[in-house]
User: What shape does this take?
Amino acid sequence: MAHREALRRGQDPDKLLNLIVVVVLSALLGARLYYVLFNWDYYGTQLSKVFAIWEGGLAIHGGLIAGGLATVLYCRTVGLSVLVTMDILAPGVAIGQAIGRWVTSSIRKPLGRPPTCRGACTSMRITGLQT
Assistant: This one.
């Protein structure tokens, strides 16, 4: 999809494919770093667990930040238009986020901390409906 869009928009598709490799690796590192930093109370005492991504712990915010920064740096380095390149990559990012949410919900993994504010929705059960 990105390859065809790059051709349509006059971007070099080979540079774009190289960028995708850089962005995926940067996003994974950024997602883990973000997660570790925001859970430093645990990882500060368990430094051996910082790299144990197989135990879980990636944050989409960190992935988006690191992936965005990697995109800007790569585009400036190889002479691609940053805005056009981000337009080309946006559908793939949205599809990746959707797949990630689907997988997370299908394995019944919690999607963050439970809400603590008054009146927050704590379950998806609707009374009066038969299941």
